[in-house]
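Consider the tokenized backbone below.
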């Protein structure tokens, strides 16, 4: 069974920065994302060097119970393991999450596809989620940095975001000038805008979150590295992985593993104990 430690070892041992040659269409952002997704799949499946497409797909099926849709979280689910959400960016700025707020964990009662909810033999209730964030600068196919951050280190509890949504809906509803419909999949719908009552406005929520390189710059600040690989894993999660996998990564000289503390997304006055795993190429 694959896990994040195996993926990190595969990336280090098969160091490759050319994400893919799929970046050849008009919609560069989507093509870039597809290349990054394949890279992530290769990392977790150990298929960087596999050239036989049929064998590669078989390995993907061996390691993933779900290879997601383009419109709903998550992008991948490891068999009997963690969910993975992949984000690509051309600059180390804010990450667009669109209509889905940040997730500390993935719950089966979220707005997921039926295929995702039923992807494993045994019904699942919740899964830890890894945000995998790749930085591929504009006009480049080169993966400059890759961050893996567990949701519990990155996002607050669901109630925090639901409260904001509720407050926004209530504010819209309080308007006595607009015909507001809140019974919709989006935040709201403003109806009957013109005199013929044939126009309406969809009010959508577009969630944005800071890139982890900005949040955790006290732990690691990227400078002139050719490539950097960073993972932030809660220490209890790290200790839950097989000892064999921990021993392998802990004995790679080029990988730094340190015990650190980060602020709790639910209360900045509290801290979370984590393992910071770092691999960088400087020349």
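A designed sequence for it:
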């Amino acid at each position: 069974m694959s896990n994040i430690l195996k993926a990190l070892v595969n990336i280090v041992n098969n160091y490759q920065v050319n994400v893919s040659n799929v970046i050849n269409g008009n919609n560069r952002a989507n093509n870039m994302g597809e290349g990054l997704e394949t890279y992530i799949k290769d990392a977790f499946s150990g298929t960087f060097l596999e050239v036989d497409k049929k064998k590669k797909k078989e390995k993907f099926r061996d390691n993933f119970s779900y290879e997601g849709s383009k419109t709903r979280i998550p992008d991948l689910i490891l068999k009997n393991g963690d969910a993975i959400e992949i984000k690509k960016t051309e600059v180390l700025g804010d990450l667009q999450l669109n209509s889905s707020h940040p997730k500390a964990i993935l719950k089966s009662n979220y707005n997921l596809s039926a295929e995702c909810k039923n992807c494993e033999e045994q019904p699942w209730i919740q899964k830890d989620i890894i945000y995998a964030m790749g930085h591929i600068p504009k006009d480049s196919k080169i993966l400059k940095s890759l961050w893996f951050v567990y949701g519990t280190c990155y996002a607050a509890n669901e109630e925090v975001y639901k409260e904001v949504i509720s407050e926004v809906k209530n504010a819209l509803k309080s308007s006595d000038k607009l015909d507001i419909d809140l019974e919709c999949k989006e935040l709201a719908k403003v109806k009957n805008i013109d005199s013929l009552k044939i126009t309406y406005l969809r009010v959508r929520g577009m969630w944005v979150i800071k890139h982890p390189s900005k949040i955790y710059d006290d732990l690691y600040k990227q400078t002139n590295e050719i490539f950097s690989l960073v993972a932030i894993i809660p220490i209890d999660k790290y200790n839950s992985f097989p000892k064999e996998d921990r021993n392998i990564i802990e004995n790679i000289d080029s990988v730094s593993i340190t015990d650190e503390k980060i602020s709790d997304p639910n209360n900045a006055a509290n801290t979370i104990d984590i393992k910071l795993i770092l691999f960088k190429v400087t020349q």
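Residues 21-31 have pLDDT under 50 and may be disordered.
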